[in-house]
Write a structure and sequence with these properties.
Blueprint lengths: L3 H57 L6 H16 L9 H25 L3 H4 L2 H36 L3 H8 L25
């Protein structure tokens, strides 16, 4: 007959193993969810990048359109598509670099669309109107994807940091990940000034 101490020890070991497996599997599930949400973010940004050449070509058809504005959009798109961040490497530095590149592209697109308002022929162009609507829809999809990604990051980070799972997480290489942050200065309301005539 086995001693009660041995049975208790085996019971404790089984409980610890079960808890460890459960904790590890939960971390893996949430890590995969973060990767999936990150892929959705990148897919939506890629959709925007894919629309830009068509938009630029449509705008180029306007004979006297400002060349520097188009060049800025083309350059910003090239920079934004060169910044790659893997889901396994979501460090604050890489996320900031990614956000800056995408932010620069957003700003140059905003300038392009603002300048386009000065060209009546362009405003009535069906292709331009369609691309403009697609870009607006894509920007909304990007916002939703970023919010979903941040929610997945929050769930993952809570699990990684919560005791006692944090012990397993630290031993097995699961670390806190970085989500999207508001851009510097976004807490300040933009100044709107009207020309007095």
């Amino acid at each position: 007959m086995k001693s009660p101490g041995l049975l208790i020890a085996l019971g404790i070991i089984v409980i610890i193993l079960f808890w460890g497996c459960s904790g590890y599997n939960g971390l893996v599930s949430q890590d995969e969810n973060v990767k999936n949400k990150w892929n959705n973010v990148q897919s939506d940004y890629q959709r925007r990048a894919d629309l830009i050449p068509n938009l630029v070509n449509t705008v180029k058809g306007e004979a006297n359109f400002e060349k520097s504005t188009l060049e800025a959009v083309i350059q910003a798109r090239a920079s934004a598509t060169q910044v790659k961040v893997e889901a396994n490497d979501l460090t604050p530095e890489k996320m900031q670099q990614y956000q800056q590149a995408q932010g620069a592209l957003s700003q140059s697109l905003g300038r392009l669309l603002a300048v386009a308002e000065n060209y009546p022929n362009l405003q009535t162009n069906q292709a331009f109107q369609g691309l403009q609507a697609q870009l607006e829809g894509t920007e909304n999809r990007i916002k939703v994807s970023r919010n979903d990604f941040n929610a997945a990051i929050q769930d993952y980070n809570v699990r990684v940091r919560r005791f006692p799972v944090n012990i397993i997480a630290g031993m097995l290489g699961f670390h806190v990940k970085e989500g999207f942050q508001a851009e510097a200065g976004s807490e300040n309301a933009p100044k709107v000034e009207f020309d007095s005539k």
